[in-house]
UniProtKB/TrEMBL annotation:
Residues annotated as domain Polysaccharide lyase: 100-289
Protein name stated in the entry: Polysaccharide lyase 14 domain-containing protein
Gene3D superfamilies, per the entry: 2.60.120.200
Signal peptide: 1-22
Keywords linked to the UniProt accession: Signal
Domain of life: Bacteria
Organism of this sequence: uncultured Thiotrichaceae bacterium
Pfam families membership: Polysacc_lyase_14
């Protein structure tokens, strides 16, 4: 019996040898090998992702049960980020609301803007498992028919270094970020922090594409770091197959120490203040988060 229990828990050998510690990756990995908790079998807490091995990193939710998005599933899907906010606002759904199979439903509490509380916004920033000079990222998102856009809100993107935001103007030596957002006119825009931005807050690059209510929209963005000393970085965005942004004059860095190394998974209204906050509870749907060295949804 002891042998069976040890095989299931994975860490009991360390326990009986005098150690009470075992890494989450070793526990979940060994447990899965015995056929227990098998949906955790891909977890890795060693800082790597499929990108570390020249493979696309794709996250969908078809493998999960309908209902609350659990902490163990979050750790497995996102490779054990250091912190998280808003897991209580996420649920796995299926049926007509889902894109295909199962999708993620994301809640926005009424009266809340910005991202300052662990329970009122969704936010985490997992490592991409390496430093990259060029990557594509993409996902699918659906806004319900009665969505209240207010003045705007953030959607996922990628970044590097400190992944600057919140009015922290990049110097070229600290970090940068590229995130999609919606604006007050219910259009999708890229919200970019870079050393040459015109003001304190992020540079808004308009796609001129309105949000299509109650329809899935597929977004793909290519980011290429600039050559040192040149403004030749790239931001290229497709929405539903159409190129809507194609900038080839970007400067993200002034040092070779900066690259693309962070996924920015964030959902919140704002800006800051009551005038950015929705007057009632809101929600959107999300699926097929992907980061890759090659094009994901649309050929480049």
């Amino acid at each position: 019996m002891l042998k069976v229990v040890c095989g299931m828990l994975a860490f009991c050998l360390s326990f009986f040898s005098g150690s009470l510690t075992a890494s989450p990756s070793s526990v979940l990995g060994n447990t899965a090998s015995n056929g227990v908790l098998s949906r955790f079998h891909q977890v890795s807490c060693d800082g790597t992702t499929p990108l570390s091995f020249a493979k696309p990193w794709r996250i969908n939710f078809d493998h999960l049960p309908v209902g609350k998005y659990e902490d163990n599933d979050w750790r497995t899907d996102w490779r054990c980020p250091d912190w998280k906010m808003g897991l209580n606002l996420l649920s796995v759904i299926d049926g007509e609301e889902a894109y295909s199979g199962k999708s993620l439903r994301i809640e926005y509490p009424k009266g809340v803007s910005s991202c300052t509380s662990e329970t009122t916004c969704v936010n985490w920033k997992p490592s991409l498992g390496g430093d990259f000079d060029a990557l594509y990222y993409g996902y699918r998102v659906r806004f319900p028919e009665d969505f209240e856009f207010v003045k705007g809100g953030k959607l996922p993107g990628i970044g590097g270094g400190e992944s600057n935001s919140n009015g922290n103007i990049p110097t070229g030596y600290d970090g940068w970020s590229v995130r999609m957002m919606w604006d007050h006119d219910a259009k999708l825009v890229q919200y970019v922090y870079h050393p040459d931005q015109p003001g304190k807050y992020g540079d808004i690059m308009d796609t001129k594409i309105p949000v299509m209510l109650d329809e899935w929209m597929t977004i793909q963005t290519k980011v290429v770091m600039n050559t040192l000393g040149k403004k030749d970085g790239v931001i290229k965005t497709w929405i539903n197959g159409t190129v809507v942004i194609d900038r080839k004059n970007m400067q993200f860095r002034k040092t070779e120490d900066l690259a693309i190394n962070r996924l920015l998974f964030a959902f919140f209204f704002g800006g800051y203040g009551a005038d950015w906050a929705p007057s009632s509870d809101q929600h959107i749907y999300f699926d097929d988060m992907s980061v890759s060295r090659t094009a994901i949804f649309y050929m480049d």
